[in-house]
Amino acid sequence: MKILEIVHEHDVFTFDWVLQRTNRQAMIRAALLTSKSGDGPLYAFAAAVSLLFDEFDLFLLLIAAFALERTLYTVFKKGFKRNRPANILKNYKSLVIPSDEFSFPSGHTSASFLMATLISVLVPVTFPLFYIWALAVGSSRVILGVHFPTDILAGATLGTSVALITLNLFGYL
Q: Which of 18, 76, 139, 166 has its CA 20 to 30 A from that of 94?
């Protein structure tokens, strides 16, 4: 249990450090837009586009990957029940209203890394673009004050792992 306390202390320190070293207004505007790009509709759009181009195997891959990722995300979120920064830190209020109660792991980060990994494996030339985007989505969640850095690390790990497992199951790896 002591190790979790140490990790939490470092997490709070890093969270505070990040928030104190940002050009607040410009960074907040960019974080809001970036975070929004990681919302669910983008992923539904990707699935719809795969059907539009008669890529039914790709559609099934996307549906299976997101079903597994969302299931595991929910299990971890409800299992760990880690409070969000605004619920832990005195006199702190996040800049957006989170979609759920707990912070670990970050769902936006998990979904964006899932998508980045899937697309990067299927279309390797997109690797830098999609991983920079996924990292920006995760970072935006810290800047907006709804996640600690380890929530982002866990989300990135979850999304990437589920993508690789799903790609392997579908014979792409």
A: 76
Let me know: does 160 contact 117? Beta carbons within 8 Å: yes
Tokens standing for residue 63: 């549906």
Cβ contacts of 59 within 8 Å, gap of 6 or more: 47, 50, 51
Closest CA relative to residue 110, chosen from 80, 135, 79: 135
Tell me which residue has tokens 């690789």. Answer: 164
Cα angle for residues 151, 20, 137 (degrees, 5° grid): 40
First to last CA, the chain: 38
- Mark 126-143 as b/e (b = at least 16 C-beta within 10 Å): eeeebbebbbbbbbbbbb
When pLDDT is cut at 50, 70 and 90, the band that residue 12 belongs to is: confident
What's the pLDDT tens digit per position in 49-98?
A: 888 888 889 999 999 999 999 999 999 999 999 988 888 888 877 778 88
Closest CA to 163 of 94, 115, 125: 115
pLDDT digits (tens, 9 = 90+) for 108-130: 999 999 999 999 999 999 999 99
Determine the pLDDT at residue 163.
97
